[in-house]
Here is the input.
Amino acid sequence: MSIQITLDGRPVSTQAGANLVDVAAEHGVYIPTLCYLKGKPCLGTCRICSVSVNGRIAAACTVSVSDGMIVAVDEPALADMRKALIEMLFIEGNHNCPSCEKSGRCDLQAVGYDVGMLVPRFPYRFTPHQREVGAERIWLERDRCIFCQRCVDYIHDQHSGQKIFTIKGRGSNARIEIDKTLADQMSAEQVREAAELCPVGCIIEKGVGFNRPIGERKFEIKSVRQRALEDDV
Amino acid sequence: MTNSHKKTLFSHDLPATPMDPALQASRDQKIKVAMIGLCGCWGCTLSLLDMDEALIGLLDKVTILRSSLTDIKRIRQRCAIGFIEGGVANEENIETLKEYREHCDILISVGACAIWGGVPAMRNEVELSSCLEEAYVDSITAVANAIPTIPYHEDIPRITTKVYPCHEVVKMDYFIPGCPPDGGTILKVLDDLVNGREFDLPTTMNRYD
Here is the structure.
């Protein structure tokens, strides 16, 4: 059913039930995302896509548009709130871009550039986390995990359908775990998919490392904003 | 510093030949710029020099008081724009940074180390004692049969328990991320400030690595 919503003060025609992030992108308004992937079930974990919907703050990826909805994205206070969320993710883990294999193709870094983060307003925490290197072709840099749950919900064993990645523990004890037996049965393509799916440098494919020269990496070729608006994720 | 009871002699206290009055007069009219390094690798100060010939064009307007060419960190003159590389990792860094802040109108953190600690801050995840033991006592490159010693002397600045970004020690006005940022990025900032424009680092120039 065709409906009309107001997007940043502009009337926009779209289909009822469509995802707000997609609708905004179709109309040239970029909403940053980290956990959301077009076409996959919504996770709503990272909150980076927070916008104002009918005057209340909501994660855009969790919103299905309905007739008469009033959405604000590009307001200074909202932009600053999203920036603060990004900054919190940066200070919570050890996001040491100069030494990270994911640098240049990391969603968190790319969104950090887009929101104009120069320095987080919060102090870095330098939380130590044990890395997991037990699987044959994947290692986990746990101190970079932002608990988006993409790997948990989108990567399954191809035979049994079981989850390969899980989150164990709660609160500050939460950590990402990998089922090493199932991980060692993953195909080469699935290993690559898991590493690329990770929006930060937590899931790393062994033996790959810094294989792309600076200047030729994913988000250096095309920014995260351009990719989202051109549907070229 | 731990040896404050001792007579410390700085280079600017040493006798020097007075500068040619005409040259001094022309320098006095220029905007004073300086860059010093704390706990970093020199990469960012080299980026300042990476402005290459663009630096020559700026020299009509600015004069450089401190840079990696001399590595003199103390400054006694009023300075308009101070760049700083590196984080704070020992007591001497704290003293230098505080003095630099007092003498600079605008202070700018340059690079990952100044902004969040950078590579030296990787030691923040472990206890300082185990970090020193790993480096000096249990080091695989330790000299065979030598008595393992963690260096300690009143002339060696005491190391801080953690590595801190500059803005956690003094107020910093602006930040240029990068490891290191390009010479062009520093030039953009310097050129804007020298010509009375606002600090503005566009998304395309912002880099964390």
Summary: DSSP finds eight helices and nine strands in chain A. Residues 2-74 of chain A form a domain with the Ubiquitin-like (UB roll) fold (CATH 3.10.20.740). Chain A touches chain B at residues 94-100, 103-104, 109, 112-114, 116-120, 123-124, 126-128, 214, 223 (CB under 8 Å).
